[in-house]
Amino acid sequence: MQIKENLQHVKKSLPEDVTLVAVSKTKSNEEILEAYDAGQRIFGENRVQEMAEKRQGLPKDIEWHMIGHLQRNKVKYMAEFVALVHGVDSFRLLKEINKQAEKHNRTIPCLLQMHIAEEETKYGLDEKELNEITTSSEFKSLKNIKIEGLMGMATFTDNMDQIRKEFRYLKSVFDKTKTQLPEISILSMGMSGDYHIAVEEGSNMVRIGSSIFGARNYS
Q1: Which domains can be identified in the chain, with CATH numbers?
Q2: If residue 110 lies in a helix (H) or strand (E), which one and from where to where?
Q3: DSSP code of residue 204
């Protein structure tokens, strides 16, 4: 497995200001360590239990990002250590993250997930829901979360024009949201198949798995 070479290749293809999240879901600790030894420090998981277990056996300076759909009852298992939650797709989830963060006396950085794809299966907020959250007094009272930016996933399609249109739309929402929340700085969009387009359209954080680790292991 050419993890080190793949990682270097991906990094070379990214502008310096774009953060790479190596998607390590279903990958072994050995494979993660190979990427770690090649300099990667940010890893993304989509299952809380898997992330918590991996964390036990891996270097402590790894930044763990929760990139999958997150259920409220799972937040408590990662509240102590998670570095960034990518997929906050409801106010109820945000409140639960705040509650669990408070128990650990920390502030958890979060991205609000926008629904930009033409697929019903993708989670996320629409613009109206986003505005309702960010302008509510209850939102302003949440002291243990910090909204760092927005995240979105494009439609799974070979139509690159459609993907570009969806990323461009998310960038426009990000720019609008920044007028309300000037402190936001992260626009997380783009995965192995479409990250080049995402970066062209303004993404500064990409989530890349198969281009680094090869195909997923579903055993």
Answers
A1: 3-213 (3.20.20.10)
A2: strand 108-114
A3: S
Q: Cα–Cα distance between 72 and 90 in angstroms, integer?
A: 10
Runs of H (alpha helix) within 22-76: 29-37, 48-56
Contact 206, 212 (CB under 8 A): no
Q: Are 6 and 34 in contact (CB under 8 A)?
A: no
**3-class DSSP assignment, residue 92:** helix
C-beta separation of 68 from 87 below 8 A: yes
| pLDDT for 114 | 97
For residue 215, what is the DSSP state?
Answer: S
Predicted local distance difference test score (pLDDT) of residue 217: 57
- Of the candidates 46, 21, 17, 48, the one whose C-alpha atom is nearest the C-alpha of residue 35 is 21
Per-residue pLDDT tens over the stretch 58-83: 999 999 999 999 999 999 999 999 99
Residue type, 217: N
Rounded Cα gap, residues 163 and 159, in angstroms:
7
166-189 burial by CB neighbour count: b if 16+ within 10 A, else e? Answer: bbebbbebbeebeeebeebebbbb
Q: Which amino acid type is present at position 46? A: N
DSSP-derived pairing of the beta strands 19-23 and 42-45: parallel
Least Cα distance to 99 among 148, 142, 52, 155 occurs for 142
